Amino acid sequence: MGKEDIPRSEVEETEKFISPSNANNNSVLPNPDGSDDNQSPKNNNNLLNESSSSPVYNHNHVRRKSSTHSILESAHVQLQIFVADAKEELKELKQFKKNGKEKTIRTGWKRYIGIILAIMSSMVFALGVLIVKSLPQYHPYSVSFWRFQGVLLPTLPMVFYYRFVKKEPIFDSICPATAPGHLKTIILLFFRGVTGASAVTLQFYSLQFISMADSSVIAFSTPVFVSLASHVFLGEKSGFVPVISGVITLLGVGVITRPPLFTGESEFDRETLIGAGLALGCMVLATATFLLLRYLRQLHFSLITVIFGFWGSFQSLALSASISKFQPPEGVEHWMMAIGLASVTFIGQTCITLAFKFEQAGTVSLCRTCDVLFAYLWQFVFLGVVPDAYSLVGGVIVILGVLVIAFRKFLSELPPDHRYRQRFWILLK
């Protein structure tokens, strides 16, 4: 061959032979003369000794060796990239621990199961509001009692299961009542029941004066004010973004009340103002409920739920009896609607609980904005109510304020170096 270049076919054959797995295990390259690839080191040494007598072959062998060395360097770089990518993939696919339990990263549609459950909870909760809106002849106290059966009755066997089957100490935080800190916990549980049950009743009251979409929009503004109240009462970190979101949300509520400034009327519409005030009261009580739940987050969820269901049932029944307004469902259709109300309450509560198990709180909060969308959809499909401009504009403004807070929560749960967190850093201020 003399001083001619190495044939390209030999170089390509050598490149095909080199792979990341061979680059690290000292594999022997194919010999230039086409001899056996699996020669022992001894045979290779003999070949070099024999070839030393031939200057031409020696020269070509050095050139081939130099080319092989260059190919090996290139393969080594490719191997480093391959190993880095493999480590990254393994890091994403391996199991990790969360809250002391093994959790596996899901693939395909299973990655979105938490989001699906959150949207399902929004859909069925809006159906519950639709059922209440469809029963105006019943007092809100009576309808509230039906709803709380969907909380109380399914929870009783759950408490029995966790306490007597799984032997979990769910009552140790309140029994005995004389133990240090137990009385405070009992009082907080009592107020959680009062605020939660009263919030439900006020929303049902508001449905007698305003549309279900307007009521849902105002009641759904709770996350904005929870963020502000947590800073005031719990000392949690806040910023100017929650304050701005709160102002935006209140502006949207103001538009829903249809002020005379917009409508050209001489005064507010009385029924609209009463309905908006009741829905706003629902929002305030729901905010207080969320604050109390943060105080009680160490308690077993079944204990909190069963006490809420029991107190809600007792409160609505007592208030109904006090004004002689308790009404059982009349006829098969109304009985089915009452059972449906309790059922969708249980299904919605179960879906939202599981959604928090599979997904982060910020993501779930973003999905819960669908509550309002389903409220508009159901009232149009089943009641034939088309929202006017004030309802739509006010709803969009409120949803905007809630979305900002929900997306802020989503960003706060991301790693500090995540690209979304760096891109939308202003929302974390």
UniProtKB/TrEMBL annotation:
It is a multi-pass membrane protein. The chain crosses the membrane at residues 112-132, 144-165, 186-205, 217-234, 241-261, 273-293, 300-323, 335-356, 368-386, 392-411. Residues 37-55 have a biased composition (Low complexity). Residues 19-29 have a biased composition (Polar residues). Coiled coil: none annotated. GO terms for cellular component: membrane. Residues 1-16 have a biased composition (Basic and acidic residues). It comes from Orchesella cincta. This is Solute carrier family 35 member G1. It holds the Pfam family EamA. Residues 113-257, 274-406 form the EamA domain. The keyword Nucleotide-binding does not apply. Residues 1-58 are annotated as: Disordered. SUPFAM superfamilies: Multidrug resistance efflux transporter EmrE. It comes from the Eukaryota. Keywords: Membrane, Transmembrane, Transmembrane helix. It is found in: Membrane.
